[in-house]
Amino acid sequence: MICSDSEEFVSCSDDSPRSDQFVSEGNNDDAFPYIPANGSHRSLTVLSDHVGSVSCLALCGEFVLSASQGDDIIVWQQPDLRQFTKFGQGDGAVKALVAIGNKVFTAHQDSRIRVWKVSRSTENIFKLVATLPTSKDYLCRFMKQRNYVETRNHRHLWIEHADSISCLAVYNGMVYSGSWDRTLKVWRISDLKCLESIRAHDDAINGLVAHKGVVYSASADGKIKAWRRRKTLHCLRGVLEGHKDVSFNSVIVCEEGRWVYGGGSDGSVIGWVSDLGLENWELVCDLKAHEMPVLCLCSMGEFVCSGSADKSIGIWKREVGGSLSHLGVITGHEGPIKCLQASSYRVGGGFLLYSGGLDRSLRVWWVSMEDCSKREGDTQLQGIEKKCIMMS
Questions:
Q1: Which of 200, 303, 327, 373 can bridge 315 by disulfide, Cβ–Cβ 3.0-4.6 Å?
Q2: What is the full DSSP assignment across 195-213?
Q3: What is the pLDDT of residues 70-92, one digit of tens each?
Q4: How far apart are CA 107 and CA 95, in angstroms?
Q5: Whole-angstrom distance, CA of residue 65 vs CA of residue 85
Q6: Contact 226, 214 (CB under 8 A)
Q7: End-to-end Cα, the chain, rounded Å
Q8: How many CB atoms lie within 10 A of CB 124?
Q9: What b/e sequence results for 374-388 when a residue is b if at least 16 CB atoms lie within 10 Å of its CB, and e otherwise?
Q10: What is this structure's pTM?
C-alpha cells in the first residue's frame, strides 16, 4: 500500500498491493526483538549504500525513500529495511521528495520536478511519467510575453524555477515547491499544471510544510511565512521573524497546526503558537539547541527532533505551553545531519527515527516515548554503527 504519511491528505491507489503487516499503527516488537525495555534511544542500523550525501527522506506506506546528492533514490522496505529497489539515477542531485497516493515527486538541482508513478503491475515499479513544468504547460504559455519574468538578468516563464528547488510539500491535491530563486510555486496533482507562482521571500526558501490549508515557508531571509489559499490564490497570513541575520533552514508544524517551530543557522529552535484564524502569534520557545546550524526538524506526537551541522540529533519534549525541554542527544553520524523522518511505527514503547547525513549514511534509531527524565543514570548510547543489524 503506497500512502502519503501526511495526516491531512491520505490517498491510496486502488491498484496498489495491500499489505496489512505494514500498517504503522500498533506494536511491532516482534520485528525488533533486540530493543531493550529501558534506555532513551538505541542505534538500530546504518545503511551506507548511497554514492553521495543523503539529502532527503520520505515515508511511503511500507517503504522508506532516501535520496542523495549523487542523484540516486533508494527504496527500503519496512520493517526489516532491506533495499527494495533504486530509481532516478542520472537525473541530477535530488534536493527534496514527497509521496502522495501512487505518485512520488522529486525535486532536482536542475530546477525541475520529476513525477514517478508507483505500480507493481510492471517491472519498472517507480516509472518516470512526467517532468515539471510539462511540455503542455510550456506550449500553452511560451508565445505570450506576459508569461515571462526577469530573474537575475535571465528571462524565463513564470512556471519555471530559475534556481535549485530546495523543498516540497503536499496538501489537498496540490504540490508546493520552494526554491533558491525565492519563489513558491503551486502545482495541481491531477493534471500537473502550475497554478501559481509567489515571490514569497527576499532570499532562498529552505523549508516547506503544509498543514490544514496553511503552507509555511522558511527562508534564508530569517522569516517563516504562513500562506492560506483564498479562492484561487494564496494570501499571506502571518510573518514569523527569528534572530537578526540568521537563516531559517527548516520548519515543522505540531498539534493540529497550533505550534510552528523553525530551525536556525545559529543553532536555535524558535517556536510560536497561534489562534485558529492565524491572526495572532505568540513566541513560546527560543532556545539554543545546537552549537552549529539546525539543518532539519521533525516531530512525533509531543516529541521534536532537531538535526544539526554539529553531527548530533537533539531530542526534545513539547510542554503544555509549547516550550521544549531537553531529553537527550543522539550522536553517531560522521558528518552534518541533513534530514530527519520520524516513523509512526510503535516499537517497545518508542518510535523509529531515520536520519540522513553528509557522511552518505542513512541511520535508524529507536527513541523512547517514555519520560526519560525520570530514569536513573545515563542511559544514552553513543551512535554505534551496526551495519545491517536488521537484515536476517
A1: 327
A2: EEEEE--SS-EEEEEEETT
A3: 778 999 987 778 898 888 866 67
A4: 6
A5: 10
A6: yes
A7: 23
A8: 11
A9: eeeeeebbebeeeee
A10: 0.84
